[in-house]
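Revision sheet: structure tokens.
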Amino acid sequence: MEKKTILVTAIGSFSAAAVIGTYKKAGHRVLGCDIYPAEWVAASLEADRFFQAPYAADEDAYLEFLSRICRQMGVDLLVPLTDAEIDVINGWREEAARIGVTVCLSPAESIRLCRDKWESARKLREEGVCRTIPTRRLDEVIRSEAASGYERLEYPLVLKPARGRSSQGLLTVLDAEQMRREADRLRPDAGSYLAQPRIAGNVVTVDVVRNVIESGDDVSAADQVVCLPRRELLRTPNGAGTSVCIFRDERLEAQCAAVARALDVRGCVNFEFVEESEGRWHFLECNPRFSGGVAFSCMAGYDMPGSHLRCFTGGEIEPMGEIRSQYLVKRYTEYRTKIL
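Predicted:
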């Protein structure tokens, strides 16, 4: 691949080291940004240049920052790593194209679908490609169940934002008394919350790369899909795996390929499932970005970040090849970033 200048955002996130390291090894010029100063971000030591970014919540300031850095530094490819930034960048694609930047994300409508857990689950139920968790909107639950004191609901019950990320706002309700309290507290925002039964089992994360190859017209388009699952045995409170088991399962991988096509994802994304029992998976969500544990897939033997780039630069992704089941763990390492 021709050497590129790549801007990677949010390089304080878990996936940053694997992404930056892969692109540097391939000879690309890698720029990094984060909301925190360089001295607070270990991955700033690995980037060729680092820039402190404003919060994506301030959309005007954030997009002005991206435009300025991309113009000044001759950025070819933009690789966002967090949902908050992806939500903003998703509407910035035309401006990015005008200044010669390729945004390495799934199509805009796919991003909107994936970021809405209600709509993405509805789409997959309609397509019939996987088992989803029975889901109700919280406002509908309140309307139909409040009169009974929520006694008819099955507990434990999970309440979560329809557009949540990293397990923020997620809570488990154990009985009707707790449900009454949470329903009163969440009532003003109930239309943006979902209610689901809690299904016991391991979380399974699947790193998925889908590349669409078009030969002049949409009718002749073909795709390549690669999937690598792992059971997350230990996780941080915000849902990042720290001890995992890589495994292969043709049924799950075929199911993930069907989900990727139904949601029309491009590049590397990750799906999460609850594994109720062997061979019985319930789809939780699609995160339209690298998983926090993408380094596990790289360590197991597949170059997810490299394949991601090929999806946006006209290349073909490598087939999976033989990968053995294995346990992998993450540990934290200290870095000195600056001496005062």
